[in-house]
Amino acid sequence: MHAPDTARPNQFALLGQRRFAPFFWTQFSGAGNDNLFKFAFTVMVTYRAEAASTLSAGLMVNLIAALYILPFVLFSATSGQLADKFDKAALMRKVKTLEIGIMLLALWGFVSGSVPALLACAFGMGLHSTLFGPAKYAYLPQHLNTTELTGGNGMTEMGTFVAILLGNLAGGLLMTFERGPLLAGGACLAVALAGWTVARFIPATAAVEPGLRINWNPFTETARNIRLVASDRTVLQALLAISWMWFYGVAFLTQFPVFAKGVLGGDEAVASLLLMVFSIGVGLGSLACEWLARGRVEIGLVPLGAIGMT
Predict the structure, then answer these.
(1) What span, in angstroms and rounded, lies between the C-alpha atoms of 215 and 220?
(2) Helix orientation angle between 115-143 and 57-85, rounded to the nearest 10 degrees
């Protein structure tokens, strides 16, 4: 399953290899679509009177973010079991099929102006990403050798944030048109179909524990995983660091549209510009990890990143 070891592989060369490229573009499309949908919806409730609700724009923006994140809290542990029990490539393809169904509902929600339908889609896209995440992170160690792993992870993270950038830009710019909701909904469905197509080419990835009995109770399984993580200090510290990074990033990203309108007095384009600058910085940092770590898995970069965030 692993490629032969090489001295210092070029991380960009992985994009020309089937063991990495279809996976990369599948996760790229998913991250892009998540953010295209969320930002278009956020812009809609912030700037468009027809999407106004009894809640303020600020509360609606936070509600969208909360509904998207909720599945991660509830189902991450269960999703990890699914990634262990089944072929990860097959699991990713099923998740992309689910995404198409969610985006069909989103298209209807955008066109009809149905905020409840779009809120349901926010939860659905969170569930889609929750199911995809464990398979995504467990895929690379089964297909890349140790000298490629830092570069492969860097490429994946760079791709994720470039996709976030493009998705946010597309969502914001499409909503500047008179028929923005229709364009945004159609774009979401098109990206979902593209992701489903490229996922067909991800190579088979053997299940690591096919005999696993899945605990379908998300609360007891989550509690079991928390106890397991707490027993390993290294894993606990890594989990806390990753969680803090995402919390910090989401806290900023979620507030950009309201900040752009209420504080800067700007329109959708200003909000998109803030997101663009943020995402470019994250993408460059992800690529720099390969150069700074010199091909090794280097945990010493984590404190430097934390200091930079602070």
Answers:
(1) 8
(2) 40
DSSP states of 237-275: HHHHHHHHHHHHHHHHHHHHHHHHHHTS---HHHHHHHH
Tokens coding 278: 């943020």
- For tokens 């190579």, the residue is 203
Token digits of residue 1 = 């399953």
Instruction: Provide the mean pLDDT of the chain.
Output: 83
What does the alpha-carbon distance between residue 190 and residue 37 come to, in Å, rounded to a whole number?
A: 12
- pLDDT of amino acid 249: 74
pLDDT > 70 fraction of the chain, expressed in percent and rounded? 84
Instruction: Check if the beta carbon of residue 153 is closer than 8 Å to that of residue 288.
Output: no
For CA atoms 182, 166, 136, 299, the dihedral sign is negative
Domains of the chain, earliest start first: 14-309 (1.20.1250.20)
Task: Match 């600020």 to its residue by tokens.
Answer: 58
pLDDT of 67 reads: 93
